[in-house]
Amino acid sequence: MTVKKKHILVCNGTSCQNVAHDEIFNNLKKELQNHGLEESAGLVRTACFGLCEKGPVIEIFPDKVFYVQVKPEDAKEIVEEHIIRGKPVKRLLYNEPETISGKESGEKARFKRKQIRIALRNCGVIDPENIEEYISRYGYEALGRVLDEMTPSDTIRIIKDSGLRGRGGAGFPTGLKWELARNNQNDQKYVVCNADEGDPGAFMDRSILEGDPHSVIEAMAICGYCIGAGKGLVYIRAEYPLAIERLKIAINQAKEFGFLGRNILDSDFHFDIEIRYGAGAFVCGEETALIHSMEGGRGEPTLKPPFPAQSGYLGKPTNVNNVETFANVPVIILKGAKWFSSIGTEKSKGTKVFALAGKINNVGLIEVPMGITLREVIFEIGGGIRNGKKFKAVQTGGPSGGCLTGKHLDLPIDYETLVAAGSMMGSGGMIVMDEDDCMVDFAKFFLDFTVEESCGKCTPCRIGNKRLNELLDKICKGNGAMEDIERLYNLSIVIKDTALCGLGQSSPNPVLATLNHFRNEYEAHIIDKKCPAGVCKALMTYEIVEENCVGCTACARACPVGAITGERKEVHRIDPRLCIKCGACLEKCKFNAVIVN
Amino acid sequence: MINLTIDNKKIKAEEGTTIYKAAKMAGIDIPVLCYMDLHDLNIEHKPAGCRICVVEVEGRKNLAPSCSTEVTEGMVVHTHTLRVLNARRIVMELILSDHPKECLVCPKSGNCDLQKIAIKLGIRDIPYQEISEISTYRTDFSPSIIRNMDKCIMCRRCETMCNELQTVGALSAINRGFMSVVAPAFEMDLEDSVCTYCGQCVAVCPTAALTEVDHTNRLIRDLSNPSKTVIVQTAPAVRAALGEEFGLEPGTLVTGKMVSALRNLGFKYVFDTDFAADLTIMEEGTEMLERLSKHLQGDTSVKLPILTSCCPGWVNFFESQFTDLLDIPSTAKSPQQMFGAIAKSYFASKINISRKDLIVVSIMPCLAKKYECQRDEFKVDGNPDVDYSISTRELANLIKRANIDFISLSDDDFDAPLGESSGAAVIFGTTGGVIEAAIRTAYELYTGKSLEKFDFRELRGMEGIRQATIDFDGTPIHIGIAHGLGKARELLEGIRKGESRFHAIEIMACPGGCIGGGGQPLHHGKTEILKKRMEAIYREDQSKTIRKSHENPYIIRLYEEFLGKPMSEKAHRLLHTHYVDKSKKIIYI
Amino acid sequence: MPKVKNPDELKNLRNQLTARAGKKQDDKKHKDPVVIKIAMATCSIASGARDTFNFITAALKKRNIDAIVTRTGCMGYCYAEPTIEITLPGTEPVVFGQVDQTKADEIIEKYLKKGELVDGVIPKNYESPW
Fold first, then answer.
1. For residue C57, what is the domain's CATH number?
2. In terms of Cα–Cα distance, which of A331, A352, A340, A332 is closest to A114?
3. Is the domain of B428 the same as that of B302?
């Protein structure tokens, strides 16, 4: 068979599409035909390269040569120089490759990719149900090294030096947490893995447990060794059946291979892991609530102190870390604190996994170094905004976070910067909004969530969030008054000031952030009775444009409530008092006579 | 000692002290709502849920709940800054926004903690009303307690009483968010749950979410019905607490005024449950002696210890949670029911009216009594021996409604024959009293000797579990006492395991016994009131000329004229009962 | 499997496994087989990865193509699920997105048989520690 020696990969990502992608593709095709190369060189479209600001991007496979900002007229040169003569077109290169020939262009020749996968290193690479594949990628060697060569204090020192902070949201230094748990003497201690991922749109923990469960098991054992715990518990939501299944398989395999159980790797260290199921309450991500839930009680938080490190599960010292935090640990042990802390910013080290969602092209799971800008994440890795719409805001930190706007795009993503900008890191949900999103409605979306997920223990969260939600609803329905903005603001401040746990203290953030950045949208709803994004149904009006209406009666027949009247061949009218804004007339009209205001 | 500053006062407090307590010691009053300190019962309820007690702590980013935040060295606290006042006001407004605004007709009006704090915080407006939804729930009517959870503010005090103090486990928080509420599991009715109707939840509820079933209107109707003869019996603990409702010092005995008031209200005869308490001692004491003698003679088929059975909350507790021990408690009915049985037989025939025209009302410190009197075991052809029971609080309310000037009433005496009682009967009203009364009689019957002293101080006090050994003329009798169902559970577990060495145990469901019953005037967390009531009970005992049940001449005559002797066939039919395994009825999770 | 006794044993095991990786134990000792990994996380399965998996295994058998097919976790390309990664002997792994049955068929016919890439390649966009 004839093997095509080279392939030209043309980015077909949505943002590249906008820049004459088709013309480039066609020109390349023509050039290959002109030179009779259809048989020996391939030409295919690819998904986004995650380098959109330099798009369109072309890769010559397998040479690992990338051309950026390619124009249609470059096709000839690329084919003639690179495909035929084997010489790269230097002026189009993203990065100087060391040589042109594929064989010599090793790793260094590639352009520096934006993502670094540490926590996700094995996801999508290994078979999660096969421990051997994990072992073949240095699996359990960190545990081996710790048990063989290091004291618990040495190990904690490495974690501390690495600068690893909790990836569940609050960013508490992991090494310090371990040290606190270690310093509380008790014959029984617990390591708990918090897999109660609850942010709407976040699914990194599920992906890690589904794709690489052993990394979490290994890290929990390391943590157990460090703090002096013999028992690990994974608190996982029952809605994650596949993750549970794979975790179970992994635990059994780890036992079989001797990475769990008694005298692990012939040391004096014993460690076992059990799975505990949560019912998926958001508040159970809060560690005291999580512990109460595991104890069989109602999942609601209690005041700290005492911290779990002092008195946690069954009153014993307990260390709770989230899945992603644990997944980083084995790599830190093997590659060292220095390596890890070389990634990221001064106070936020390493990487963070984000779930990109919303109005973005490349919806997906990404892992980026701390300090990367929102712009890089959204417009390069994320491939920009869908359908060429305008970026409006991005929500980080889920319902506890806030939205960030165009002016924040060049801020580095790290714990402190996000908080300073009125949002937070959170567990890694990142929801992108465009011009079609109404920010009042958006704030309401998150309040709907917190109202639903509040445990109901403290007044500000139980009733305050409900009232916030009702005020937002009032505004969305066009019944708001200007004083409602003040009420929203004051109530938000008091809820933050008085709520018992992190959920309540952060629940007004979406309201405060949208009030800060999009006050004009609130005012439009209240004063003009208009939803600028056209989302809030109650504020929409359907009208018939006289000039366009031919009196075909299609709209009147489609209207389920009889709000449209008019004789055949005469202009029809919509009675706004009857209209339920279902949009049926708009759909039926062939003459563009129905408009929405 | 920890040094801190509260409102510019330098204060020293012990480690582990909360800001609230440290402030209180320094004379600074921080308003609290969900917080409850039942000092004498060793219960400090501080869920930090209502957030009314928040204060500003320098260096802390948010406000701290003072009820549960411990003091730290150098802490600087401000309890009434504008920020704090604003937060408290808004939190209170939030609570009120989810609370029915029907104070005018609310049974708790004037006695409501929520109302008091709202007044204290100067709330003049309830915002959000134009938009706000109120969380509403199905009202749950049980024979004793009404749960109207629309008025629940989630203070969770009832949960603490039910689960920690009583270990009954009928109430817990359910649902999430705005619809969170305290309820039996699956929101089943109290009647289907393990609830014992002890009423301790009602006793601490700050609002009218939990109230007693009110029979006052029914009583007024019956009193004004000329074809009925309405008689009343009053439990011993009532007279030691009723005065509180009229501003008298806790511990004031109002026996004579109470009788006066009842007569003024229109009862044909005012009797005393104490009479029936003496009767109880005759039956229960005899049963105890019988079992004891057999046991001491080496009969192993006899089950010991014998447990008292006059407390209906306690009866409900073992009927649902200790069904394997149903044969241990005495079969003697409670004094309320003995009274009813005698009233509707012996007394009815004496005054020559049919039982259906005789209405027997009881005044009880208790809510479980409301349930007890409507049990099928205590009915004859569907007609209950005791028609209904009124709590101390309801009686006070009724007296006020009838415009009776309670304070200036002169003392009156109970009617004969069911109004005469011994001191032994009076002390039924406090923990340890029943067993002390039983011993006064059992000792004399067993030894044939007269007691030289009647006061068994070793049996008295507020300790949750007490034990004493009484010398029955050479035979040591081991006595156990528990009050509060949590403490009862401890003793019962011991019996279950076969570790109990007691011959007899007295159990009262409520802390302090009947004086701390769920139907008594609200103590609002001041548990020292219980001690005052207890002292009053013992004072009444002291003042009695007859101190032993078997010496009550009316009791002696009752046996002569009607019953024969204790434990006779007739006594059995009228004065003894059996217990039901309720565990099958109750839905367990 | 006997328990791994110490870190050295673990390293040896890893070396054995990496040496063996990509080789089927039984036959074809002289030739590395094709490795196909199919992302099978919850989201992949929701987008039809199980159908793709079943189709590919059946098609390979029917068309007598020797390849190792395994499942793996989420590759992160939610916008392009189901995703599969194919490693031809001696080449870099290539990830394909939106692999439904038609696409899978095309990939087998063109890439597996002829080394010819097809539309829908997802360029690798991350670094990893190893």
1. 3.40.30.10
2. A352
3. yes
Residues of A in contact with C125 (CB under 8 A): 48-50, 113-115, 381
In tens, the pLDDT along C50-62 reads 999 999 999 999 9
Q: Is the pLDDT of residue B438 over 50?
A: yes
- CATH assignment of the domain containing B491: 3.40.950.10
At C20 the pLDDT is: 67
Taking one residue from A and the other from B, the number of pairs with CB-CB distance under 8 angstroms is 112
Q: Which of C73, C85, C116 sits opposite A128 (nearest CB)?
A: C73
Nearest by CB to residue B62, choosing from A451, A466, A497, is A497
Residue B231, SS3 per DSSP = strand
Q: Does domain A351-434 have CATH number 3.10.20.600?
A: yes
Q: What is the pLDDT of residues A97-137, one digit of tens each?
A: 333 333 333 433 345 678 999 999 999 999 999 999 999 99
**Contact flag A500-B131 (C-beta cutoff 8 Å):** no
Pairing of strands B43-45, A594-596: unpaired
DSSP states of C83-121: -EEEE-TTS--EEE-S--HHHHHHHIIIIIHH----S-E
Which of B89, B120, B151 is the last residue before a domain boundary?
B120
Type of residue numbered A316: K
Is there a domain that residue B532 lies in? Answer: yes
Number of compact structural domains in chain B: 3
Beta strands at C94-96 and B43-45: parallel, antiparallel or unpaired: unpaired
Judge whether B394 counts as a catalytic residue. Answer: no
Looking at domain A131-334, which CATH architecture does it have? 3-Layer(aba) Sandwich (3.40)
Q: Work out how many domains chain C is built from and give that number.
A: 1
Of the residues A265, A341, A343, the best mutation for testing chain C's interface (the one with the most C CB atoms within 10 Å of its CB) is A265
The CATH architecture one would assign to domain A439-528 is Up-down Bundle (1.20)
Asked if residue B150 lies in contact with residue B135, where contact means CB atoms within 8 angstroms, the answer is yes
Residue with tokens 């003697």: B332
Question: Per the residue annotation, which of B245, B287, B436, B540 is the catalytic one?
Answer: B287
In the beta sheet, which residues pair with residue B141? B146
CA-CA distance, A510 to A73, in Å (whole number)? 48
Among B212, B245, B283, B372, the active-site one is B372
- ipTM for the assembly: 0.92
Structural domain includes residue C14: no
Contacts of A59 in chain C (CB under 8 A): 123
Q: Is residue B106 domain-shared with residue B181, that is, in the same domain?
A: no
| CATH 3.10.20.600 segments of chain A | 351-434
Q: Measure Cα distances from B144 to A509, B203, B319, B518 in Å.
A: 46, 13, 17, 10
Average pLDDT of chain B to the nearest whole number: 94
Residue of chain A minimizing CA distance to C18: A136
**Which residue range forms the structural domain that includes residue B172?**
140-212
Q: Is the pLDDT of residue A585 over 60?
A: yes
Last residue of a domain, one of B212, B243, B267: B212
Q: Does residue B144 share a domain with residue B77?
A: no
User: What pLDDT, on a 0 to 100 scale, did the predictor assign at position B589?
Assistant: 45
Residue recorded with tokens 């001449």: B553
Among chain A residues, CA nearest to C97: A47
Q: Mean pLDDT throughout B242-263?
A: 97
- Residue B265 lies inside a defined structural domain of this protein: no
Which chains does B contact via 3+ CB–CB distances below 8 A?
A
Q: Which secondary structure element, helix H or strand E, spans residue B179, and what is its range?
A: none
My answer on whether B81 and B196 are in the same domain is no
pLDDT average, residue stretch A246-256: 96
Does B176 sit within 8 Å of A466, measured CB to CB?
A: no
Q: What is the pTM of this model?
A: 0.88
Strand partners, B44: B37
Mean pLDDT of B492-499: 92
B313 with B443, same domain: the answer is yes
Identify the pLDDT of residue A98: 39
User: Which residues on chain A are in Cβ contact (under 8 Å) with C88?
Assistant: none
Contact B173 A457 (CB under 8 A): yes
What is the CATH classification number for the domain harbouring B93? 3.10.20.740
- Rounded Cα distance, A498 and A457, in Å: 12
Query: Is C60 contained in some domain?
Result: yes
**Which of A129, A243, A331 shows the shortest C-beta gap to C129?**
A331
Q: How far is A24 from chain B (nearest CA, A)?
A: 56
B532 is catalytic: no
